[in-house]
Amino acid sequence: MNRLRKLLHEAQNWLLARPLRADLAAVLLLTLLWALFFWRALTPNPANQVSYPEGDFSGQFLTFAIYQARRLLAGEIPLWNPYNMAGHPFLADTQAAVFYPPRLLTIAASQFTGGFTYATLQAEALLHYWIGAVLMYLFVRRLTASYLAGLVSALTLTFGGYQTGYPPLQLAILEAGVWLPLALLGLTRASEQPGGWNLRWLAVSGLALGLSLLAGHPQTTLFFLYVLIAYGIYRAVGAGIGWLPMGLGIAGVVALGFGLAAVQIVPGLEYMRLTIRSEMGIDALSGGFPFRDLVVLVLPNVVTLWSPLYSGVAALALAGVAVWRRERGAYFWAVVVLVALVLSFGGATILYRIVYLFAPGASWFRGQERAAYVVAHGIAILSGLGVVALRRSGLRVKPLARVLAIAAALAWAAAVEAFIISRFVDQPEPIALINGLFLLGGLATAVWLLVGRMAGHAHRAWWGAALLALVVFDLFSTSANTNWEPIPANERLLYHRTLLPSLPDEEEPFRIDGRVGLAHGNYGTLLGVEDIRGISPLELSAHESYERLLPDYRLYELLNVKYVFTDWRELERPSTIIARDESGVQPVYLHRLENPLPRAWMTYYVSLAEDDAQALAWLADPGFDVRTTVILDRAPTLDFPAEAPEDAQVTVEVYEPERLVLSVDTPADGVLVLSEMYYPGWQATVDGNEATIWRANAGLRALPLTAGQHEVTLVYRPLSFQVGVVLSLISLALLASGMIAGNRLSMRSRQQS
Predict the structure, then answer these.
(1) Which of 133, 148, 249, 242 is nearest to 189 (CA)?
(2) CA distance 397 to 446
(3) Please, how many CA atoms are within 13 Å of residue 119, restricted to the half-sphere of its CB?
(4) Residue 697 in 3-state DSSP?
(5) Is the pTM of this model over 0.90?
(6) Could you please report the per-residue DSSP string of 451-482?
(7) Per-residue confidence at 428, pLDDT binned at 50, 70, 90?
(8) CA 307, CA 479: separation in Å to the nearest integer?
(9) Mean local confidence (pLDDT), 401-409
(10) Dihedral angle over CA of 369, 372, 373, 378, nearest 10
């Protein structure tokens, strides 16, 4: 034992002799532990392979990423996606993350590994764990000047209950969140020099914010932003930076971050105001944790499927030590954790209602339990500060040991009581609860011994190694199996494959209802089949109203549905079953509708509706004929015929995601109706002349046409995207200029000194 201690001490001295050597060793250790944690996702042995479960990971993020890869590799910018929800603005849907740099690198790398697959996106998710671990290490290492503190904080965040819970399945949450430590590092370095901000490091914080915004989960970035602003104020006050330069510096960081991501943010803001999210009130948004989930702070994998509030018993004890010892910065982070924890209960507390009313952006998002993101980061940082507090001189060991001993005794008492009670109740034994309590008792005892009784040895190398081992044992034991299923990623069957080959390859565009055949996801995008269904937290209000308020037969008419996957043998309108699969739990039939409406058609009667509610009520009426009558909000100046002609012809000549060309031959003035969702940014020309696109039938596009032959072209060129591109390019130029100027100033300062 003495020899081992001596070897550890010598190794520590050798590493600490050169800071870069110690940092590289720490990063190597984090990399090895990362590989150990995810070994079953990384192993080439199919018998041991696991993968993330199907759901939003596959149905939304994988399908979006594959569409993004196809379009970008073809030299096209994916502005519009025609393959789900009857068409929607792909780039403006922030979770598509079209310009997120790590996604672009993943797409480029996938060309050397057989294309973009389930395993490719899973690898991207795993890489973000490594990125987050390294960034948290670098931040806390700089904050505390302690390698051990940086490692403890990195392990606590990366493998804790929050980050290994739902974020990888909602991939944008994980990817938007990992950049916060980089932003905090930038503010820390920027406020270290006397006399004011270091602009180069402020630019680093702005870059981190921009990356978070581009990753595509605005709610996570909102939490990120509030922590960033609060920490910036805290650092500026501590560094003696005046209020004006403080405000200008923080505002510059925020402006740079939003500027870099403007190519995504500006179209996203335009889209959000037209989605169902804009119609939600506080009752729909205020959900959060139930108060009983507080037990998850010490007892994971018992109360809920995920344990987002669990950071480890050792980390919680170290965080308490940091606050007890009044370590520098501990009170700030303790307040951050407390505020985020209270907010995570949503409308159950008055704090959320105040924030909802007065905090910018707080009234946009539901699921307030996601404030656990801030709780996890705060506890991780506090755990690192706790390590420094233990190593500081003057530590009173006995009071600390006494408190931890009481906590361990209570944990054991709860475990024994639960076990005894389970022997006498006429109910199934609560195995998970009993196992969790006994594990808690063991971990609490280990923390008592190491952090309490042996705290006087905290400066020794063996103590640091023992602490890391305890943190790893705790988190790897409780989190390593979360989410994984024993199915290799390349064996995932994401949709109903049996009936899809029965879909004919037709020249005229058509849509399907894939609610049954393509499962609950955006698999139409994956397959290049135009589906009226799909999933996204941002859905056009018009499309949602169609699905919610109209009968299926009317929905099919308006959205050019020709084929329906369903478990019904008969539909509301005449159809023919062209394929069936009765091998599963429920039969699935592929219906071909008789006489479906085409992608575009001419109408010669107009009904004027005061609002969408009236228009939708008319559309839901079985007696309303959408083939001959269009609903508008105002009357076009046309000379409509007394009787609708029957020989009008509309042909789709070109159908591409962002471009449609139609040939129209109409013997009388009328209105061309397109089975395409109305959305700003679409521009039209008729015979080469600019034309206005009208909003028809409470959500579709229409163009009034005079009698004769016409060529109608529609192109998607959103002004929001063009503005966003300009702002992002300007911000990139400012970032590069700031970095260059900062380097020159730094070199000049070193030369003068």
Answers:
(1) 249
(2) 16
(3) 18
(4) coil
(5) yes
(6) IIITGGGTTSHHHHHHHHHHHHHHHHHHHTTS
(7) low
(8) 9
(9) 88
(10) 150
pLDDT tens for residues 125-148?
999 999 999 999 999 999 999 999
Distance CA 573, CA 555 (A): 12
Question: How distant, in Å, are the alpha carbons of 92, 128, 256, 483, 672 from that of 49?
Answer: 35, 20, 42, 13, 54
Answer yes or no: are the C-beta atoms of 81 and 65 closer than 8 Å: no
Helix/strand/coil (H/E/C) assignment for every residue in 672-685: EEEEEECCCCEEEE
Describe the chain by its helix, strand, coil percentages, rounded to 5.
55, 10, 35
Integer Cα distance of 517 and 520 in angstroms: 9
Instruction: Say whether pLDDT at 753 is over 60.
Output: no
Residue corresponding to tokens 């030299």: 75
Structure tokens at 205: 């914080």
Would you tell me how many other CB atoms lie within 10 Å of the CB of residue 47? 7
- How does DSSP classify residue 261? T
Report which of 353, 271, 350, 322 is spatially closest to residue 92, judged by C-alpha positions: 271
pLDDT of 33: 97
Residue 71 host element (H or E):
helix 63-73
The phi, psi pair for 561, rounded to 5°, reads: -85, 130
**Other Cβ atoms closer than 10 A to 455:** 21
Q: For residue 69, which amino acid is it? A: A
Residue the block writes with tokens 């000549």: 653
Determine the pLDDT at residue 65: 96
Task: With cut-offs at 50, 70 and 90, classify the pLDDT of residue 324.
Answer: very high
Write down how long the chain is. 753
Calpha distance 379→523 (Å, rounded): 39
pLDDT digits (tens, 9 = 90+) for 688-746: 999 999 999 999 999 999 999 999 999 999 999 999 999 999 999 988 887 777 666 66
How many other β-carbons are positioned within 10 Å of the β-carbon of residue 536?
21
Residue 179's closest CA among 268, 102, 75? 102
Task: Read off the amino acid at residue 670.
Answer: G
Give the per-residue pLDDT at 729.
95
∠ Cα 326 329 334 (to 5°)? 80
In the chain, count of helices (H) and strands (E)? Answer: 27, 15
